[in-house]
Amino acid sequence: MNPAPSPLLVAGVGNIFLGDDAFGPEVIRALDARPLPPEVRVRDFGIRGMDLAYALLDGCATAVLVDAAPRGHRPGTLTLIEAEPPDGTTLPEAHGMDPQKVLALAAHLGDEPLPRVLVLACEPGVLPSGDEDILPGISPPVREAVDRAVDALHTLVPVLLADPAAPAPPLGRPMESGPPHAAALPGLAADGAEDR
């Protein structure tokens, strides 16, 4: 008899050889010292998009992807984004780790509705400029954001375990560049962001 699937997946995504793109795997590694509740499935997917697509189809109610994502904020800023379900305009891709293409692939592979997907994103400061660039190690502001991301997951995960459809709690301080506001999910007032 197979064990019941985890209700919540926390997935680190990113390439450890591409500078700040290693943020997701670094957060998953930091969770080894501060683990989430045992019913949460925590996994570093790296750049294995196909594996993540199948994991999204494995019965979880909610998935939190931890990733570096340029959104125009100061490096190290954390943003919580509610991913839109695939609308058929994004082509699925079996190789690579573009979260939108992974969601499109999962929708293509499965008959069931996809889980709710949130992205805990960190604004990168250092990314390679070309395909041949290798930049091991993450920049200081993104390194500092790793512990804040672990804190954010320890706040977010109990809320999502209690109610997978619950609004996500604020991440912390609002963006410095915008007016003060409570962090919220896209589709509501504004993106939740934390600068430090």
Compile the SSE list and pairings:
Elements lengths: L7 E6 L9 H8 L9 E7 L2 H8 L5 E7 L9 E5 L16 H11 L6 E7 L17 H23 L29 E3 L2
Parallel strand pairs: 1-2, 1-3, 3-5
Antiparallel strand pairs: 4-5, 4-6
Helix pairs in contact: 1-4, 2-3
What structural class do the secondary elements suggest?
alpha/beta
Order of helices and strands: EHEHEEHEHE
The number of helical runs is 4
The percent of residues in helical segments reads 25-40%
**Beta-strand content estimate:** 15-25%
Largest sheet: 6 strands, mixed
Between the first and last Cα atoms, what is the distance in angstroms?
47 Å
- Name the shape in a single word: globular
Tally of strands: 6
Low-confidence stretches are 173-192
Largest beta sheet: what is the strand line-up?
2-1-3-5-4-6
Query: Average pLDDT, to the nearest integer?
Result: 78
Using only CA atoms, what is the Rg? 16 Å
Describe this structure in words.
There is one protein chain. The protein has 196 residues and is of the alpha/beta class. The protein has helices at residues 23-30, 49-56, 99-109, 140-162; strands at 8-13, 40-46, 62-68, 78-82, 116-122, 192-194. Strand 1, helix 1 and strand 2 form a beta-alpha-beta unit. Mean pLDDT is 78; it is low at 173-192.
Q: Which keywords apply here?
A:
196 residues, alpha/beta, six-stranded mixed sheet
In a nutshell, what does this entry contain?
This protein is an alpha/beta fold. The chain has 4 helices and 6 strands. Helix content is 26%, strand content 18%.
